[in-house]
Amino acid sequence: MDIRIENWNDTLKEPKPDYQFGDHVHIVDKEFYLPQLDKHRQVWIYLPKSYKDSEKKYPVLYMQDGQNLFHAKPARNNEWAVDTTVDNLIREGSQEMIIVGIDHGEDERLKEYNPYDSENGKGEGKAYAKFLAETLKPFIDQHYRTLPDVNNTAIAGSSMGGLITLFAIAAYADTFGSAGVFSPALWLAPQIYDHIAERLSGLQNHKLFFVAGDKEGNEMINNIKKVYSLLNPDGKNERIVFFEREDGKHTEWFWHREFEPFYKFIAG
Known about the structure:
This is Alpha/beta hydrolase. By secondary structure, the protein is α/β, with parallel strands linked by helices.
């Protein structure tokens, strides 16, 4: 009897699927340089289907965690599928927007998306936010047909991406006019409350969309309420909203679902 072992079970690796994306989702650069951090990241862009056949200019939404943003074939269980969502909303009459996604730094994500030092290491979020405002946005405005003013520039992210989104719109209120803050990891950056308080006047005319779920825990909800009360103490500013969802969990399917009301909030 001739028995040969081809491989051991614990050394076998599932082949990575060859993901395909829509023909209006492109990679801007697989190794886009972040001079503020001396690193490289893949940058994606979604162009509305009308882009290739028109000369019009479009608002731009910048989003964190680019790996999970766009719908892939085969489908992934951790994707936001923002391109298919926006395609559907545009067909229903919503405003067209360009969406730019920046890949996170894998193991470095907890540092890159935190403006402050923490148990995870020295915070690099201030440099990252500066990259978004002073390097990436000018590049996108130069190479694509955009509406570059503050009222047509938005930013969004979830968890750590929500934290850096909130920091960025406060730090660069003359660059970003609206923000989607999904389940932000505020517990890792208690200094953010002072940051917001110092910049309240610059944010009162901005659109801020906060959302989180009860199944993410009391700390999550209480932290967002604390930020919301700073920004909108009497609840009368309709440009600053917070939605607490009873079934919401700290996961992509929840953020995918809540992306639609956020997009309608900023784009109509």
